[in-house]
Specification:
Number of helices: 4
Helix content: 10-25%
CATH class: Alpha Beta
Distance between the termini: 39 Å
Order of helices and strands: EHEEHEEHH
Number of domains: 1
Amino acid sequence: MKIVIDARFTRTDHHDGISRYGASLIAAAAKIADVSMLISDPRQLALLPDVPYTLISSPLSPAEPFVARQVNQLNADVVVCPMQPMRTWGRKYGLVLTLYDLIYYEHAAPPASCPPRSGYSGACTTRRTGRSGCC
């Protein structure tokens, strides 16, 4: 089984909650399965395990609604995303989404630092403050 783990929420300077969770998940899964990861910035590799990777668009980019087109090319059996906002339109793989930082469903207004129409308040807050969860 070919497993691809979405590591695009990994920070580039130090681990926060989602970065640490994703890196730990990749390291553990790579011990028992054929695992590769998705990144959106080569600087993320400094905080991630040494496994094969594919560079794709940022989860905050306007291309995110169509990310399945990029991921389909990898012929993954399963894609695991440590955050729930990975878009799924047109996907041809199994998908596991982790519910994380659910506070944003109660307080849905994104921080001012989020790009318009991104819908990623949790990711934006993590990137902006270096902390996940309620700020």
